[in-house]
């Protein structure tokens, strides 16, 4: 079995004075998600945000901002265009679109270049590629804006291993046991969580605490295991780093840190080598930072039999 864990992501913010985005009905969000090929599985809300667990990743809606993440073979760009058109481009303060290179990119409905061409028919912006085209890389499209983008940080982990990785590939898993193994309620006691366990494997969880969010998605298949975590927690104002804990629990062979308007220290990470980095000034107000790490150990590879 193969499932494309690599994600596509949009963040859209409307200008001050617009009606709250949380006022849109569930039918509205379902209409946009259907264009991408995703469904709502559950919703968690507090006074600041509505967090939807999707059949492919997550949707977060604040009063003035939307964060939509999809994985698999979803066509996120269609949902993005739907939102831009429905909200009116003149009401949009900022828009970003990120897409990681896929494990099997030829199975995707579009290429990043196609997506950018469609976006530019609606709004002006600059597209970037970070990393080598023939290897591990990330794409970013950022609309023209001088406003400060929201602080956000992502941890992308590849080829997780250890007891929890083995458990995530076994039958008869339970959400309670996965949550206990991840230790999220202990590490983030203020958060309220909403999670979903997929068949035959795969796990998604959203968490909310005031205006803060955390979302985590696990695609555990052995030869393309992938885990993503994203949050807007301010690591610069706290000595605690949830990414360090997750790296120690899931022990990936390699990982990426991607952040907007935030710098992270790697001092508390497991033993590692930083093999690539990029600090990109999007404009005078915003920065995009990327770092790629590997464990400093030799990996023993097993040849896979290819069935044709």
Automatic annotation (TrEMBL):
GO terms for biological process: spermidine biosynthetic process. Signal peptide: none annotated. GO terms for molecular function: adenosylmethionine decarboxylase activity. Pfam families: SAM_decarbox. InterPro entries: AdoMetDC-like (IPR048283), S-AdoMet_deCO2ase_core (IPR016067), S-AdoMet_deCO2ase_CS (IPR018166). This is Adenosylmethionine decarboxylase. It comes from Shewanella piezotolerans (strain WP3 / JCM 13877).
């Amino acid at each position: 079995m193969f499932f494309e864990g690599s994600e596509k992501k949009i963040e859209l913010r409307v200008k001050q004075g617009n009606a709250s985005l949380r006022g849109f009905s569930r039918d509205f969000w379902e209409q946009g998600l259907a264009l991408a090929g995703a469904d709502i599985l559950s919703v968690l809300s507090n006074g600041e945000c509505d967090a939807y667990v999707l059949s492919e990743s997550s949707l977060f809606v604040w009063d003035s901002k939307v964060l939509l993440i999809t994985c698999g073979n979803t066509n996120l760009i269609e949902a993005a265009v739907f939102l831009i058109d429905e909200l009116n481009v003149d009401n949009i303060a900022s828009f970003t679109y990120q897409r990681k290179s896929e494990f099997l990119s030829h199975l995707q409905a579009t290429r990043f270049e196609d997506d950018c061409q469609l976006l530019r028919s609606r709004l002006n912006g600059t597209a970037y590629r970070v990393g080598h085209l023939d290897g591990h890389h990330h794409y970013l499209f950022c609309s023209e804006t001088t406003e400060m983008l929201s602080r956000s940080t992502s941890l992308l982990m590849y080829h997780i291993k250890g007891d929890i990785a083995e458990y995530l590939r076994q039958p008869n898993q339970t959400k309670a046991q996965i949550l206990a193994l991840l230790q999220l309620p202990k590490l983030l006691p203020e958060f309220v969580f909403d999670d979903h366990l997929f068949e035959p494997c795969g796990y998604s969880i959203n968490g909310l605490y005031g205006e803060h969010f955390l979302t985590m998605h696990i695609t555990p298949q052995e030869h393309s295991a992938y885990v993503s975590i994203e949050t807007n927690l301010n690591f610069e104002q706290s000595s605690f780093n949830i990414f360090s804990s997750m790296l120690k629990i899931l022990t990936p062979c390699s990982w990426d840190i991607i952040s907007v308007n935030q710098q992270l220290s790697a001092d508390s990470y497991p033993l590692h080598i930083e093999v690539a980095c990029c600090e990109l000034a999007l404009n005078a107000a915003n920065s995009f930072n990327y770092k790629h790490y590997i464990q400093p150990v030799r990996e023993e590879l097993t040849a896979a039999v290819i069935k044709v």
